[in-house]
Design a protein that fits this description.
Double Stranded RNA Binding Domain; 8-stranded parallel barrel; alpha/beta; homodimer; elongated; 3-stranded antiparallel beta sheet
């Protein structure tokens, strides 16, 4: 099987993406993740242009890595400066990585109009810089910026820039579609030509951007034409439309093209690693990302759901666990009765597809969806809704009143909100008050304070995630908001949803669902324990 | 130039996407948008499976459309039922569209294991159904479900399913990569074979899904191999990883491959139309979408910014206005001094790259970014920040105190929150109170009520968008939130940002920025009017 090395540039080219800014600690965490995945090179910064990157490389020197090698990235020497006196190259080598990536210009237009150098001086800059790094004992990857556009404009010159890098000592030349405008046919054709001319002693690489929606296809086309090195970003981050998405490319290479990369067990880490990188970057993960997104194996259309239940191969191109993902059957009005039935059966095991109950639940569901509810992903609220419709729900407390007060200036910057809650449990009233970082936080604290007297197990539960989605943002401050709350205790985690034009009320609804779900779950468990092996009907 | 017809399936296959649910009114609005763009066919629903779609087609019959033709979608007749007695086909023709799309099975595995019919019966189902629709005078597009997987398993049978459709009267056969698992080489090869066998009397189409990140590439490969009909969804919606993104395909076909589609002036409507469709679907638009996203022509890296300013061609593969988009230069710590300088100059025209002011602004900016601020997209807050750093800012009012109260039960479901605001303008105090749909809404109303006495022009301003992003959602209810508020008056629109662990405080900060920006803008305008032609320094 052919083998391809993978260079991840999330920390360098990915950091150019809009809304992305990594701390040194973020970068160290991402290096560890990429190393566990089995990436060959982690291009981790441009020490010459960003002082924060210098600090990162100092810290990174203490990391113990498995397969991954850190690579520093920087430009060729400046016009008219000797390589050994060039500050940029000194910084590049100064951080002490075994591998360096040096980029230079392959497009004559860029040389003349942006660099404002002669074409020969540019060739010397490339050769000198690679030679300087190679003489210092570094493995040199040369990034041929704008190679595909450059070749279109002046093929002979573009090839000479590669020859200059290789003559200088580069062991790998990565052909860059810097502006992302090339088509797969063109990329494949040129990669084949370069591989014929310089391979196999020199590795040919591909570095694609997604401006034409073709970064994955261009990368695969290059590998098909002889490239043995692929650059990109695991979660597809990067300037403009992003760098080539490595999670997609890795899965396609391994599962579709039979090309070896990373390590044998890497593939099953793909989903978790891609998601974790996005989380560290504080970017909302695109759930429709091929292979690794939550939607990638989610089935909603009634017919598809039926077929997938019969045989997954009917609507799945690969088996989700191969890439560390899972199949999901979505609940929605399009989903059809079989999905709802499956849910209703957890609460009412004797229900059938034609039970009036199933129709009742469907109609309630549609009504709630019209109002802005969405139960895809909020299984705990859905289970509670089913219990309410089927009449098996019994409230754990009654709310008499809540009140939140937010004040500025508050005298206490960290606790600017106050909430009072009055509840009743089986005829016993309880009033509590709490201060919080905002009204929702204060309300959460006050409600739990009031309830713990009656339900001590609540002390083991905590909120682990809180998401707000403004539904009709054009209504501005009076808009409807949907709040998702994820909670967990030592055993399970569950998600609930609330909708209102008042963000506090929406949060309250999700909060109450979350607490009730926890209490029902505990009740079931203790009943189970006393009944022997009776199965829980609530835990998702 | 070759010509390709475009079928948009946002309202049918796109509606299968997770989190998407269209009302009849939504669908009518999207049909109008797609027609203005110049799409050839709008596949708008599956009347046999969804009663809501019946209602839609009744309403849609009153639309006056330009180029676009509505198409209804449905399956072949059921096993063992005569076409003329099949309820599904009756519904399909019953909605009265001139064009119908009939889908059937091309993969023997699906016929045997999902449909549970004989291979011959399936061929008869396809032929009968197309013939029934054709006899009723409809133009029939046949969607060959799973064609590429089917051909891999049993090439002869897959081709016979197409022949059955064509024999029945289909004038176009769309080859579907239903599971999204095919590679461009395979798609191109089979499309060429089908086009050779059945073309040019019969149009060959492509219907791709993005499960391997290759839907765009597969669609282009098919067109390159002779397909003259492309199906997809304008904004890439659809089950799992989505259908082929038509906005990308249309731009690639026209700008990269010289293939004609839509109408001559359609391309400049592409960005606005794709965004509007997402807005109606209530889906957060993916801003890194090629060609049409806000990030598609946004430049952040210092070096790129410098080069793009010198010559846009250096880092742009196409000219943004061609697709109705625009270039953006982003402000961030990576963006470098030239971007900041550009901004500072609006307030302090005499500043240079080395002014201490520029360094001061950069350092303040980094501090705010660390705290969670993001000024990309919040130009008005950025301008105010610059004025604060450079000392040209003068507050329009002083806040003495605000207080918000949220209460349940509130007695008035629609106005459950109350806010009081006490402010001072040049020594004069004003207290106001307002009720709102939530604390932020109440606060907005109360503040404006208090200020309008001093600044009557505020009555012309309104909030047009309100967005909340939870930054460290793992801190749950105590998380830091970032609020963006978009405001407009009759002339301009502007965006401001606020960050806090308290959503009310974050909203307050953005709200105050928004009001102050409006007042400064008005002041500048009236000064301009009295000064003659002096240029405004604040309006973005």
């Amino acid at each position: 099987m052919a083998r391809v090395t993978i260079l991840d540039s999330t920390l360098r080219d990915g950091a150019q993406g809009e809304g992305i800014s990594f701390s040194v600690q973020d970068k160290l965490n991402i290096v560890r993740l990429l190393d566990s995945l089995g990436v060959d090179y982690v291009e981790a910064g441009n020490p010459g242009s960003n002082p924060k990157d210098m600090e990162f490389f100092r810290e990174a020197a203490h990391l113990t890595l498995g397969r991954a090698k850190l690579a520093a990235f920087g430009p060729t020497r400046r016009v008219g400066i000797e390589a050994s006196r060039d500050e940029g190259l000194k910084s590049l080598l100064g951080v002490g990585t075994e591998t360096v990536v040096i980029f230079g210009k392959s497009w004559d237009f860029h040389v003349s109009h942006v660099l404002k150098a002669s074409l020969d001086e540019n060739l010397a800059m490339i050769a000198d810089s690679c030679a300087y790094a190679a003489a210092a004992g570094r493995r040199v990857i040369y990034d041929a910026e704008h190679f595909f556009d450059g070749y279109a404009a002046n093929p002979d010159y573009a090839i000479r820039t590669l020859a200059a890098a290789i003559g200088g000592g580069a062991s790998c030349v990565a052909l860059c579609d810097t502006n992302g405008g090339s088509l797969p046919g063109w990329v494949g054709e040129l990669t084949a030509a370069v591989a014929r001319k310089f391979g196999p002693e020199v590795a040919v690489g591909i570095h694609a951007h997604n401006d034409s929606g073709l970064a994955v296809a261009n990368s695969l086309a290059a590998v098909g034409a002889g490239a043995s090195h692929v650059q990109g970003c695991l979660a597809g981050f990067g300037e403009r439309c992003g760098n080539a998405n490595l999670s997609t490319i890795i899965a396609d290479l391994r599962l579709k093209m039979g090309v070896d990369c990373l390590q044998p067990d890497s593939l099953s880490l793909l989903s978790l690693t891609a998601r974790s990188v996005a989380e560290i970057a504080n970017i909302v993960f695109d759930e429709s990302t091929p292979f690794v997104g939550r939607h990638a194996f989610a089935h909603k259309a009634g017919m598809h759901v039926d077929a997938v239940v019969k045989n997954p191969r009917s609507f799945e191109h690969v088996d989700p666990p191969l890439v560390g993902n899972e199949r999901r059957i979505l609940v929605s009005e399009v989903g059809g009765r079989s999905v709802i039935l499956d849910r209703v059966k957890r609460v009412y095991p004797e229900a059938t597809k034609d039970s009036p109950l199933v129709a009742q639940v469907l109609s309630k569901l549609k009504e709630m969806e019209r109002f802005g509810y969405q139960f895809e992903g909020a299984d705990a609220s859905l289970d509670l809704l089913l219990m309410k419709v089927t009449g098996t729900y019994k409230p754990f407390f009654r709310l008499s009143k809540y009140r939140t007060i937010g004040e500025q200036p508050s005298g206490d910057a960290a606790r600017c909100a106050q909430a009072t809650v009055k509840i009743e449990v089986e005829g016993v009233e309880e009033v509590s008050v709490a201060e919080g970082d905002g009204p929702v936080h204060a309300l959460d604290l006050a409600l739990r304070k009031a309830l713990e007297r009656f339900y001590p197990s609540l002390s083991a539960m905590r909120l682990t995630d809180y998401k707000v989605r403004v539904l009709d943002s054009a209504s501005a401050a009076a808009a409807t908001v949907r709040v998702f709350i994820e909670s967990s205790d030592t055993v399970d985690s569950w998600t609930t949803v609330g909708v209102s034009t008042d963000i506090i009320e929406a949060s309250w609804i999700a909060l109450v669902d979350s607490i009730e779900f926890k209490l029902i779950k505990d009740m079931d468990k203790s009943r189970e324990a006393s009944d022997g092996k009776e199965k829980s009907s609530h835990v998702a």
